Amino acid sequence: MSDFRAGFAAFVGRPNVGKSTLMNALVGTKVAITSSKPQTTRRVIRGIVHRPDAQLVIVDTPGLHRPRTLLGERLDSLVLATLSEVDVLGFCVPANEQIGKGDRFIAEKLAAVKKTPVIAVVTKCDLATREQIAQQLLAVSALADFAEIIPVSAVGDDQLGLLADLLIARLPESPPLYAGGELTDEPEQILVAELIREAALEGVRDELPHSIAVVVEEMGPREGREDLLDIYAFMYVERPTQKAIVIGPGGARLKDVGTRARQQIEALLGSRVYLDLRIKVAKDWQRDPKQLRRLGFYD
Ligand SMILES: Nc1nc2c(ncn2[C@@H]2O[C@H](COP(=O)(O)OP(=O)(O)OP(=O)(O)O)[C@@H](O)[C@H]2O)c(=O)[nH]1
After folding, report:
1. 88 near 64, Cβ under 8 Å?
2. What is the pLDDT of residue 172?
3. 198 and 134, same structural domain?
4. How confident is the model over 10-43, as pLDDT tens digits?
5. Residue 173 has what DSSP assignment?
6. For residue 13, how far is its CA from the centre of ligand 1 (angstroms)?
7. Which residue's CA is the nearest one to ligand 1's atom 27?
8. Domain residues for 249?
9. Rounded to whole angstroms, what are the CA distances from 66 to 105, 218, 251, 298?
């Protein structure tokens, strides 16, 4: 197959603009964790679109934003490194929000990555009127010189096929990069940690926006019980008050978090799971390089 195309794409945009949802809709299965609050996606998670004519490997990036904490700076360097390594970029702006400083900041960064074509994606079109969408397309086109501009809705399944076509058209001719059926190359332990973090944030996002990190210390089948997976995980919070919130009265909340996380993990891995979840206070972990390294955010 000489005209087969394969390569990498990344979606970039402010937190909460719908990048993860879009990637999940394109790939057709849940590999990244979505949420209604910013910065759920901290690590690069790939999903793969398999088509008879192409293979599109999507790298999901965390929200690019002005660095405020050390964590923010690392995210930015991770994002910028990602940008120059892919074949095509999707710059996401929601249809239902005015373009702001953050969008302009990112558009500037993208313009600096000269060798990678950028497709502007106006997301969440189901939440906007036709006029709003038309105006947003104009406003976005004034931001930079994009290779294409396309309105989509991940929730409404609108124009996703066309978006895939536009992205694939920018990939090099290449044999497939991954075996058929593979949907993510994210190590299972990281996916498991994300599911636990997601369960822990449920209901307390406003109180603990970015203060929870989860590390899976150990994971493996129990001896003599191939049907049961033992998982030992630590959840880090920044302050004792946050620990109290996560644990809840009489430990009720933590128990509930553990139950929901376990059910999600069992669904993901197709195995019965014993989850040992403990909480530790790691003071100001977002600002401490040593803690960040421990929690998996490498230089
Ligand atoms: N109505 C509607 N909602 C959407 C659409 N896409 C995403 N959303 C919602 O917007 C919110 C944010 O979506 P995410 O996919 O988590 O956004 P993100 O850009 O990946 O966010 P970060 O991980 O913080 O960078 C979620 O509540 C989604 O359900 C869409 O096409 N239509």
Report:
1. no
2. 92
3. no
4. 888 888 899 888 988 888 654 444 333 333 333 4
5. B
6. 11
7. 36
8. 188-294
9. 8, 34, 37, 19
Q: What is the ipTM of this complex?
A: 0.97
Residue list, ligand 1 pocket, CB within 6 Å: 13, 15-21, 34-36, 38-41, 62-63, 123-124, 126-127, 153-155
Task: Give the total number of structural domains in the chain.
Answer: 2
Q: With left for phi above 0 and alpha for psi between -120 and 50, is residue 176 left, alpha or beta?
A: beta
pLDDT tens digits, 107-130: 888 887 888 899 999 999 999 999
Structure tokens at 215: 């590390």
Which of 22, 27, 34, 37 for a ligand 1 pocket mutation test, highest count of atoms within 8 Å of Cβ? 34
Mutate to test the pocket of ligand 1, among 11, 20, 103, 132 (most ligand atoms within 8 A of CB): 20
Strand spans (E) along the chain: 5-12, 45-51, 54-60, 88-94, 118-123, 148-151, 213-222, 225-237, 272-281
Domain boundary among 137, 169, 201: 169
Pull the structure tokens for residue 173.
């001719």
| Ligand 1 atom closest to the CA of 152, numbered from 1 | 31
State yes or no: 296 annotated in a binding site: no
Mutate to test the pocket of ligand 1, among 16, 44, 205 (most ligand atoms within 8 A of CB): 16
Look up the pTM and report it. Answer: 0.63
CATH number of the domain residue 109 falls in: 3.40.50.300
